[in-house]
Amino acid sequence: MLKKMKKVTLFSVLVFLLLATSGVQAIVVENVTTGQIIFSDDGFEDDIAGGAQNAPTIGGYYTNANVSNAAAPGPYDGANYADLTGVGNFEIYFSNAVAAGDTLRLSFAMNITSNYDYNDTRVRFMDGNVELGLFEQYAGSTYGWDEATGWPSYTATSALIVRDTWQEISIEAMVGATDFLVTIDGTSELFTNSLQAATQFTGFRFTGTAVGTDNWYMDAVPEPMTISMLGLGGLALLRRRRG
User: Fold this and answer.
1) Under a CB-based contact definition with an 8 Å cutoff, are residues 17 and 231 in contact?
2) Which of 191, 188, 185 is nearest to 122 (CA)?
3) 4 in a domain, yes or no?
4) Which residues are registered as beta bridge partners of 210?
5) Over the stretch 153-174, which tens digit does the pLDDT of each residue have?
6) Which of 10, 35, 94, 102 is the most exposed place for a label (fewest CB within 10 A)?
């Protein structure tokens, strides 16, 4: 009876932890191969609106993000978000480069509210200051291209950017590969031949250009925390206790 009660108590604690952590929001870069989060920010919630961003919660640093809490378009999560309008290159750098063979996943929310037909929004894979390839919204269409070979390498048909609304986006690629996977609001598409085969990734660069202005914004999405690992660890612990 005592053993059964201990198992129930342990299970209850695990459920509580899962519920308590499942709502955490962040801008995240995850090394899928190792299971480590190598860059994470709380979506600018610890920053002061109207100023520059603080250091991220985990790893690396930002450049050129303006923190906003304006009502339009309003945040996707919390009170603050990043206004990338007119900042040039907004960049995320890792503390350590990610080597060939490892797979990275960048997760964030994005809202493009430009009224200009040729608004051009780009998310680039970086090796130092070398631009390896990019995911792009241009003139209402979504593209991928290897910057060594020209534009565009790939035209999307299902994972599409929609202007004037927040969308959850993840971009995933293996270092050394020439393709990357884009998921937008649950719809995934492989962007083929859109990336140079590199020996490392050091960060991401976000660039917006347009005829007149480039209004676009960034915020947090649910963080891919070690919820599944916690669950598996709990099951393993229960099995050990049962044995």
Assistant:
1) no
2) 191
3) no
4) none
5) 899 999 988 888 999 999 999 9
6) 35
